[in-house]
């Protein structure tokens, strides 16, 4: 063959003398050496090649093998030669004569390792890619050996990450380094403690969607207990988290759920016999060591075994199958089982499965369902109206009493705007109240008018408090009570009270008119008499009648029938008596208290008569003989604790002071005269104490207990 026809895989040419000299050297080599002619005839082989010579020449003579000697660049597989169970790689040199020197290198161990690696790749790609969870395999240095398509959907990223760790991954993906640090910490703990480590990861994806993943790092050992690799599981528990939130909401925040999940990994024969397993299987099954011949499905009930076997035969997998089991210690547990049939060229058909202990979750779910049923029975049986209002002001839930009171069917109330059942005035009121509720305010004493299905108006009173809905937005929780009958009774009582007030006002008005008639009769009698003594008697009588009439006049004019403003009454009475005596009240320096002092109606007439006597005495004995007459009526009020009743009461003090000559000393203590006699009698009616002092004018002090509250 010409030199130009030599392939690129052929070594440089050897000179003829060099080739002859090399035969002696070839005999010393442990590698098989062949010298072939240009026509692929055997010219020479050393002792190491004797066993392969005939087969090697026969293979080289085949057309497919000729490409090594014709200038065609062979592929990697074309350099190998197999004999029995051994594999050799071929190295070819060319002599100037056109002969070929072929040296064989035994690559049997390397080839076997490559075959095992290809089997593992097949297992990863064809089997683990079909496990319906996020599944990754690490070596003991936290380098990725495999990532299935559920963990990373992008094929380019999945290929790129092999041989890299989480720190390189988060850097490539522009993710927080804390994620890699957290995962590495759990990974190191798994390797150091040689046990399964569990954690929950919450990530934010596209569209700000939050995803919660339960991650587990589990060491996987061979039959001799040697660490093969670290198996990482990632289970999407977002839906489960949402379900827990919904349960918590329906329970009115009954309590928080703590999610504590364990995962066991095993492989088994098609019939269920255990092949390999991790320590979580032992923990779940309460076994110190699981017998290799033990059937993994022996823990299950017979009916569950039938279902699982049938599903495996039909679909080749079992996903999230929940089943009760009895452990080796006789303990009852509930597990979540995942199984898939794997076909491996090396291992044959077997089952790869995971077991999750969900006993606590099942017990919690049953307890919550029972509790929810109890609360729902209370909710539905409540006589009060309970309404759950969404953020959009629609009725999202209500108690039976709501539909019962309004007369509507449940289908017409649910998801309907609550405004549809309110009067126009109440719609405005509700919108204002609900706006405050959405701000987080608790609104009490809310009164709304609802429309019954027959068109009648019902009055409901209650409160609306802010409450989060399932979607997390703020809505309202309303508690109402039907007060329609109560409002009707109140209106009836108000009408009755108005009628009574009208009648009482009319009584006071007529009493005042009658006293005015008496006053007028006395005035006529006084006008027809020429006797001054009689005129004085008539004037005194007129003032007393007028003082009583003024009490009734004040009561019906102010529409307050239980109390009297004694300060205002005193001012008015002073002016009235001044007019009776035809005197200018402005010529007297009259003063009284500015504070508001109220006395009860039972004492009003008596106190009015006492004030009348004091003012008349002033005009009789002070005004005529004093240059600048002055009269002061001051009031004071204090509280005290009544020892008998234990209640607070009021004590009122009246002080009357003038600047006249005072009483005759001989009459101060005896109190002779009709005026003083009236003062004593009237003060006894009040159970009051009085003090009279005649020093720099006349001083009269009276103290009594008021029943006014």
Automatic annotation (TrEMBL):
Is ATP-binding one of the keywords?
A: yes
Ranges for domain PAS come to 371-441
Pfam families membership: HisKA_2, PAS_4, PAS_9
Q: Which reaction does it catalyse?
A: ATP + protein L-histidine = ADP + protein N-phospho-L-histidine
Q: Which GO terms describe its molecular function?
A: ATP binding; protein histidine kinase activity
Residue ranges constituting the PAC domain according to the UniProt record:
195-249, 444-495
Keywords noted in UniProt: ATP-binding, Kinase, Nucleotide-binding, Phosphoprotein, Transferase, Virulence
Enumerate the InterPro entries for this protein: HATPase_C_sf, PAC, PAS, PAS-assoc_C, PAS-like_dom_sf, PAS_4, Sig_transdc_His_kin_sub2_dim/P
Q: What is its EC number?
A: 2.7.13.3
Keyword presence, Hydrolase:
no
What class does this enzyme belong to in the EC scheme?
transferase
**Could you tell me which PANTHER family the record lists for this protein?**
ETHYLENE RESPONSE SENSOR PROTEIN, TWO-COMPONENT SYSTEM SENSOR PROTEIN
Protein name per its UniProtKB record:
histidine kinase
What species is given as this protein's source?
Answer: Flavipsychrobacter stenotrophus
């Amino acid at each position: 063959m010409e030199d130009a026809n030599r392939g690129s895989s052929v070594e440089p040419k050897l000179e003829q003398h060099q080739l002859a000299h090399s035969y002696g050297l070839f005999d010393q080599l442990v590698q098989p050496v062949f010298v072939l002619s240009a026509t692929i005839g055997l010219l020479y082989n050393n002792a190491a090649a004797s066993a392969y010579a005939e087969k090697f020449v026969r293979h080289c003579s085949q057309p497919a093998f000729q490409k090594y000697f014709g200038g065609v660049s062979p592929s990697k597989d074309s350099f190998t030669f197999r004999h029995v169970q051994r594999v050799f790689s071929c190295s070819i040199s060319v002599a100037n004569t056109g002969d070929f020197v072929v040296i064989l290198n035994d690559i049997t161990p390397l080839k076997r390792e490559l075959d095992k690696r290809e089997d593992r790749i097949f297992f990863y790609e064809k089997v683990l890619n079909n496990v319906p969870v996020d599944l990754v395999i690490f070596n003991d240095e936290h380098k990725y050996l495999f990532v299935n398509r559920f963990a990373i959907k992008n094929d380019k990223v999945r290929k790129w990450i092999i041989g890299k760790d989480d720190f390189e991954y988060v850097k490539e993906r522009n993710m927080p380094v804390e994620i890699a640090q957290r995962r590495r910490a759990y990974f190191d703990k798994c390797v150091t403690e040689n046990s399964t480590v569990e954690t929950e990861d919450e990530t934010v994806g596209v569209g700000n969607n939050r995803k919660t993943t339960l991650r587990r790092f589990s060491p996987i050992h061979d039959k001799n207990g040697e660490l093969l690799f670290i198996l990482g599981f990632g289970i999407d528990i977002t839906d489960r988290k949402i379900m827990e939130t919904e349960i918590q909401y329906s329970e009115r925040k009954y309590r928080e759920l703590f999610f504590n999940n364990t995962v066991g990994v095993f492989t088994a024969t098609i019939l269920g016999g255990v092949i390999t397993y991790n320590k979580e299987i032992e923990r779940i099954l309460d076994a110190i060591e699981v017998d290799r011949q033990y059937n993994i499905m022996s823990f299950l009930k017979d009916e569950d075994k039938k279902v699982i076997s049938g599903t495996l035969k039909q679909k080749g997998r079992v996903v999230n199958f929940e089943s009760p089991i009895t452990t080796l210690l006789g303990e009852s547990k509930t597990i979540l089982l995942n199984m898939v049939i794997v076909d491996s060229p090396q291992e044959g058909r077997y089952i790869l499965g995971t077991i999750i202990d969900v006993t606590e979750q099942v017990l919690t779910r049953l307890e919550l369902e029972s509790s929810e049923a109890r609360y729902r029975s209370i909710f539905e049986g409540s006589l009060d109206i309970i309404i759950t209002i969404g953020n959009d002001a629609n009725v999202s839930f209500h108690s039976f009493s709501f539909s019962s009171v309004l007369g509507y069917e449940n289908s017409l109330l649910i998801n309907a705007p609550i405004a549809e059942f309110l009067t126009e005035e109440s719609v405005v009121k509700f919108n204002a109240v609900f706006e405050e509720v959405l701000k987080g305010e608790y609104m009490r004493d809310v009164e709304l008018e609802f429309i019954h299905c027959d068109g009648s108006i019902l009055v409901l009173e209650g409160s609306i408090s802010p409450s989060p809905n399932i979607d997390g937005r703020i809505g309202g929780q309303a508690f109402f009570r039907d007060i329609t009958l109560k409002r009707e009774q109140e209106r009836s009582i108000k009408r009755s009270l108005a009628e009574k007030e009208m009648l009482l006002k009319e009584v006071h008005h007529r009493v005042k008119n009658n006293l005015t008639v008496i006053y007028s009769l006395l005035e006529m009698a006084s006008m027809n008499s020429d006797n001054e003594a009689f005129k004085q008697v008539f004037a005194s009588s007129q003032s007393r009648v007028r003082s009583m009439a003024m009490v009734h006049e004040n009561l019906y004019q102010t529409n307050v029938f239980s109390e009297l403003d004694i300060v205002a009454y005193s001012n008015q009475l002073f002016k009235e008596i001044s007019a009776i005596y035809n005197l200018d009240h402005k010529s007297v320096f009259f003063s009284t208290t500015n504070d508001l002092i109220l006395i009860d109606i039972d004492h009003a007439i008596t106190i009015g008569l006492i004030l009348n006597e004091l003012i008349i005495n002033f005009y009789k004995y002070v005004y005529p003989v004093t240059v600048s007459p002055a009269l002061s009526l001051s009031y004071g009020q204090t509280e005290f604790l009544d020892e008998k009743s234990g209640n607070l009461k009021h004590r009122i003090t009246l002080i009357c002071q003038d600047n006249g000559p005072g009483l005759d000393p001989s009459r101060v203590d005896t109190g002779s005269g009709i005026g003083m006699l009236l003062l004593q009698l009237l003060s006894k009616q009040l159970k009051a104490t009085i003090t009279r002092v005649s020093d720099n004018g006349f001083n009269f002090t009276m103290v009594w207990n008021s029943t006014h509250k």
